[in-house]
Amino acid sequence: MKQLADTLSSVLEKAPCWAEARFHRRQSQSLQVQKGLVKQAKSSITAGIGIRCLVDGAWGFSSTSHLSASSIEQALKRAFECARSLSQVKKSAVKQLPQIALAKGEFVLKGYEELQNMSLEEKMAAVIKAEAQTRGRSSLIQTSTCGYNEQFEDKIIVTTDGAKAISRLCRNEMRLSAIAADHGEMSEGQHTVGRTGAWNCLFTEHSIDQMGEEAVKLAVELLKAPKIPGGLATLILSPAMVGLLSHEAIGHTVEADFVLSGSVAQGKLGQRVASPLVNLCDAGFVEGQPFAGGALLVDDEGVPTQNTMIIKNGILESYLHNRESAAAFGVAPTGNARAWLYQDEPLIRMRNTFVLPGNQTLQEIIESTEDGYLIDCPLGGQADATGEFMFGAQKVMKIEKGKVTKLFRGATISGQAFEVLSSVDAVSKEFLLDLGAGYCGKGQPAKVDAGGPYIRCKAMIGGVQE
Q1: What does pLDDT average to over the chain?
Q2: Is the predicted pLDDT of residue 95 greater than 80, yes or no?
Q3: Confidence bin at 465 (pLDDT 50/70/90)
Q4: pLDDT, mean of residues 20-35
Q5: From its phi and psi, is residue 168 left (phi > 0), alpha (psi between -120 and 50) or beta?
Q6: Which residues contact 291 (CB under 8 A, 6 or more apart)?
Q7: Can you give the residue ranges of every domain in the chain?
């Protein structure tokens, strides 16, 4: 890696403009077992170099899978020619990038070597056993599935203005699902976890047995659960649901490229957008959460990542930036430039997005709720640039007079994100990043994480009128 970093540096010394070289090698492995049968066991390696040039505000990009100095020089030449051609027709206010302290040296997150030294046979045996145990927990389980994925990421980022960073990390995820059936009714329970680190970091909150047990328990209980009535309601959102709201409905609206395109967050810096109880962050490394699924020490422009306070005490404090958008706004970049593969250009992307914990316990919040619902197990959904969202939830528990009573079938939660956050009147001490098994889509995939405490708010809950 160091030798290749030196080669990239020597090639960029010949660049006639600002230039960036990014080497990226990804080694992936996927295992899946369903009903006792191995459905997938595959591995792949993708490696290459992406080159970007900036000429009078215009970008040029080229990539190569060949790592020789001559191939890199050819990619640099192509990227420069593209940028120079575009600069003749594209006028940009950003002529140069902000000067900042860029990353130099090696940046390695824990777990890389440990996971690499674990054999394929060990991983496959664990997946087979987990699926079999899940399937055997109830006679009502018709189908169970266990899937495991991992990615080893090796990167080198070199720029003509000082970055020279080598980074290594590994990400993994486990998914367990169970489908129950009885008298024509079917329901599904699932448990997922995603982390950055070794095998054991997947099971810091729940053992693999507990994951299967909870998936089966939920699937079986949902068979007889009634459908939920709809309407505006008081909701206590779990950390996973808070993470989904934070990422999809808030996080994307404050990505600076979306802001420039007219998102709902445009022009709102310094304004109140949420309850004073709400503090929302996006961080590359989260203190106390060393295995967060979106952990990152250096972004794909060589900018050290940081904890960016997006909303502080309900006030919108910052957008998320790459170097170009930071120049446009006259601020420092936040380390949010990320590319999926070497042939992709970096985009502004989140890393780990979360609401900070408060000072009440979950039990205290439940006990002070006269009528409402406890919402958990997100099923995805959608949000747009206006902050309007609609999310699915698999597990909905009724709260009556301060006690959790019955389970309902899944529901949809909808509203306008800033309005929902403005209604927050309770935030728990309990905190968890709980969306590390997810992928964010924005032209390219990206591994992210999100979460927070339990929060109490008001939003529309969708269901069938009883």
Answers
A1: 95
A2: no
A3: very low
A4: 98
A5: beta
A6: 110, 111, 195, 196, 197, 201, 204
A7: 2-223, 231-462
Q: How far apart are CA 464 and CA 389, in angstroms?
A: 19
Evaluate if residue 55 carries a pLDDT over 60: yes
User: 375: number of CA atoms within 13 Å, CB side?
Assistant: 32
- Cβ-based burial of 371 (10 A; exposed 0-12, middle 13-18, buried ≥19): exposed
Mean predicted confidence (pLDDT) in 297-316: 97
Of residues 435, 431, 396, the one with CA closest to residue 412: 396
Task: State the Cα–Cα distance between residues 282 and 403, nearest whole angstrom.
Answer: 33
For tokens 């904890």, name the residue.
307
The whole-model pTM stands at 0.95
Q: What is the 3-state secondary structure (H, E, C) of the chain?
A: CHHHHHHHHHHHCCCCCEEEEEEEEEEEEEEEEECCEEEEEEEEEEEEEEEEEEECCEEEEEEECCCCHHHHHHHHHHHHHHHHHHHCCCCCCCCCCCCCCCCEEEEECCCHHHHHCCCHHHHHHHHHHHHHHHHCCCCCEEEEEEEEEEEEEEEEEEECCCCEEEEEEEEEEEEEEEEEEECCEEEEEEEEEEEECCHHHHHCCCCHHHHHHHHHHHHHHHHCCCCCCCEEEEEEECHHHHHHHHHHHHHHHHEHHHHHCCCCCCCCCCCECCCCCCCEEEECCECCECCCCCCCCECCCCCECCEEEEEECCEECCCECCHHHHHHHCCCCCCCEECCCCCCCCEECCCEEEECCCCECHHHHHHCCCEEEEEEEEEEEEECCCCEEEEEEEEEEEEECCEEEEEECCEEEEEEHHHHHHCCCEEECCCEECCCCCEEECCCEEECEEEECCEEEEEEEECCCC
d(CA 174, CA 127) in angstroms, rounded, equals: 9
Q: Is the pLDDT of residue 319 over 50?
A: yes
Listed residue (361, 281, 267, 288) closest to 313, CA to CA: 281
pLDDT in tens, 387-429: 999 999 999 999 999 999 999 988 999 999 999 999 999 999 9
pLDDT at 463: 64
Q: What's the rounded Cα separation, in Å, for the pair 460 and 450?
A: 22
Distance (Å, whole) CA 264 – CA 252: 10
CA dihedral (416, 421, 427, 430) in degrees, to 10, reads 50
Q: Dihedral angle at the C-alpha atoms of 62, 64, 70, 73, nearest 10 degrees?
A: 20
Query: Is the domain covering 2-223 a CATH 3.30.2290.10 domain?
Result: yes
Q: Integer distance in angstroms from the first to the last C-alpha of the chain?
A: 63
